[in-house]
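REQUEST ID: PR-0412
SUBMITTED BY: lab tech R.K.
PRIORITY: routine
TASK: structure prediction, single protein chain
INPUT:
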Amino acid sequence: MNIRAAKIGDEEAIHGLISELALYEKAPDEVTNTVERLRVDLFVDRVCEALVVENDLQEVVGFALYYQSYSTWKGRCLYLEDFYVKPEFRRGGIGSRLFTHVVEIAKKWDAKRMDWQVLDWNEPALSFTENTKRF
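STATUS: complete
OUTPUT:
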C-alpha cells in the first residue's frame, strides 16, 4: 500500500469513496458534492487537501480529506473531515498509517489541535479513534 498526496485525476476515486462512506453512514442522499466541484476545491481553489491510499494495482482504496481551521484560543488547527478505507483493505494497519500521515501534516503546519468527529453508533470508528489517542 502506498500513501500519497492526492493529485489531479484522483477526484473521481475520492468522490466514489465519499459516496461509499455516506452509504455506510446511512446518508447516501446527503452527498451533493460533485466530482468537478471536488476537483476545483482540491486542486484549483485549494479549499481542502487529501491523502490517498493506493493498493498494489495503483487503485485508490482509501483517503483522508482535511483542511486548516482556526481556534481563537489555540491558533492553527487541522480538521480531518473524512477518513475512509475500503472494508476489504482494513485490518492491515493501513488506517493507522494514513492517520499518522495526517498527524504529521498537522505537525508540519504547526497546528495546535487536530479535530475530527465520529458518529456515536459507528463502533469500528469509535474503536479506531480510541486507539489513535496515543498520537
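NOTES: Residues 15 and 34 are 7 Å apart (CA to CA).
REVIEWED BY: pending
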